[in-house]
Design brief:
With 446 residues, this protein is an alpha/beta fold. The chain contains 14 helices and 24 strands. The longest helix is centred in the first third of the chain and has 13 residues. It binds ligand EPZ.
Length: 446
């Protein structure tokens, strides 16, 4: 199993090209099942999860061809053509779905395309039980007959899906995406209320409209979809990854550096920019994306800012659905707060077990106390200025593992992050991008 070794204490300086968004690419790939025409997707990131999804699609009968590299905003995203002339299987098997929960996003397209699907229940993961009850209930409103059998969702809609009003009891990105895709071929109008407003959902809706769907209200919490007979192909570029961009913004901040994020879209990062701004980390739009740097060192001393946490201020954070502060950035923000100048209260409202990074950060000398869904983080000023020290740590999920890398960049000494396959699911060429800005980071292949 690969490991990543980081020797901390070096401010990052330079430019990082932001890749296409994993959480937009995955539903966009699933959308290729909705038509027998070719769908060309550009700026796809090179990630393990993308490979898993294409493997799943291939066993449904999708023909895939790489159409070269697409120079977009400095990031060499891959270009892929997908065509599902006929579905050779309507089953998404457990051994694929258990590796990647987003596989459940083939459920809506399969049902819409051919009226049946047998998709393994994804099961839980490190951050929570992550049920799919809202996906199922929503599809039943559109006329699907669904039962659970041997750990599989067995769904049928022999006469096709019908119009209806789906009200989500809580905001769900995946349920919104599954229902959105299913609704494009329904017989009648579908209204999705309390829909997720994440930019990745809007990206999917825009691509579906380019394929001939009739979706209105994109970006809002109520989506109106007028079903059509069939969808055609399209040529669509995946939007840049706002979570990756924000992760590298925090990498710049935690090392007291200055980094330009090439291709980042400020409009999708407003809550993050506001929070980091309060923490004295400035994100400024540039022609190519966004510049990130720490504000002037506050309080006494001045100097290089290393002594008092790079001038980063402690702030309270509570995660929320978009446009609120993203849960996918909670672990990274916590790493930053461990070197800030005071005490920060971090509340996780989306997932029930998303503090897996805490025990590992404690091993690095952080001062964090968890009580229920809230973590109190005392920064460098709060733990007597000891700051973080390197240690061998264990990755548990995608965002927890990257928070350990961020902590390692700031820590004195050497940090080795184990189980980096978690990282490879969501961060393309992470060690290359960071070492390109001066980080001492190496992948150790065993
Ligand atoms: C998507 O997961 C993202 N994954 C997650 O990113 C992200 O954390 C999450 O949205 C929230 O923004 C992809 O887009 C591939 P949800 P998803 O449905 O769709 C509960 C990452 O690190 N819920 O919005 O699975 C659920 O348990 C990943 O890139 C139900 O109860 O998230 C959670 O508590 C991690 N019933 C909350 O809703 C349902 O039917 C939000 O989940 C569906 C969800």
């Amino acid at each position: 199993m690969d490991k990543i070794r980081i020797r901390g204490g070096r401010p990052l300086e330079g430019r990082i090209a932001i890749s296409g968004a994993k959480n937009a690419a995955l539903p966009l790939l699933a959308a290729s099942l909705l038509t027998d025409q070719p769908l060309v997707l550009r700026n796809l990131p090179h990630l393990a999860d993308i490979a898993t999804m294409t493997h799943l699609l291939a066993q449904h009968g999708t023909e895939l061809s790489m159409a070269g590299e697409h120079p977009g905003g400095g990031h060499m995203g891959q270009v892929m053509e997908l065509r599902t002339r006929d579905l050779t299987s309507t089953e998404a098997p457990y051994d694929i779905v258990r590796k990647m929960r987003a596989s459940v996003l083939v459920l809506g397209p399969l049902l819409a395309r051919c009226g049946r699907a047998r998709v393994s229940l994804p099961g839980g993961c490190a951050i929570g039980t992550r049920p799919v009850d809202m996906h199922i209930q929503g599809l039943e409103v559109l006329g699907a007959e669904i039962e659970l059998d041997d750990g599989y969702i067995v769904a049928r809609a022999p006469g096709g899906l019908r119009g209806g009003v789906v009200v989500f009891p809580r905001v769900s990105v995946g349920a919104t995406e599954n229902l959105l895709m299913a609704a494009t071929l329904a017989k009648g109008e579908v209204i999705l209320e309390n829909a997720a407003r994440e930019p990745e959902v809007a990206d999917l809706a825009n691509c579906l409209n380019a394929m001939g769907a009739k979706i209105e209200g994109i970006g809002g919490d109520t989506l109106h979809i007028q079903g059509v007979e069939a969808l055609h192909g399209a040529d669509y570029a995946v939007l840049p990854d706002r979570i990756e961009a924000a992760t590298y913004a925090i990498a710049a901040a935690i090392t007291g550096g200055r980094v330009e994020l090439i291709g980042a879209r400020p409009a999708t990062m407003e809550a993050v920019s506001a929070a980091l701004g309060q923490a004295n980390v400035l994100l400024r739009p540039t022609d190519g994306g966004m510049m990130v740097e720490c504000g002037l060192v506050g309080g006494g001393g001045g100097g290089d800012g290393r002594g008092d946490g790079n001038g980063v201020k402690s702030i309270d954070i509570s995660t929320a659905p978009y446009p609120g502060f993203p849960t996918d950035l909670q672990a990274q923000m916590m790493a930053l707060m461990t070197v800030a100048d005071g005490a920060a209260m971090i509340t996780e409202t989306i997932f029930e077990n998303r503090f897996q990074h805490v025990p590992e950060l404690l091993r690095m000398g952080a001062d964090i106390k968890v009580k229920g869904a809230t973590a109190m983080v005392r920064g460098r000023g709060g733990n007597g200025g000891a700051g973080l020290h390197g240690a061998p740590v264990m990755a548990t999920d995608l965002r927890a593992s990257v928070s350990l890398v961020l902590a390692g960049l700031a820590a004195s000494g050497e940090t080795v992050v184990n189980r980096v396959y978690h990282l490879d699911r969501g961060y393309e060429r992470l060690e290359e991008k960071l070492s390109g800005c001066g980080a001492d980071i190496t992948r150790l292949t065993e």
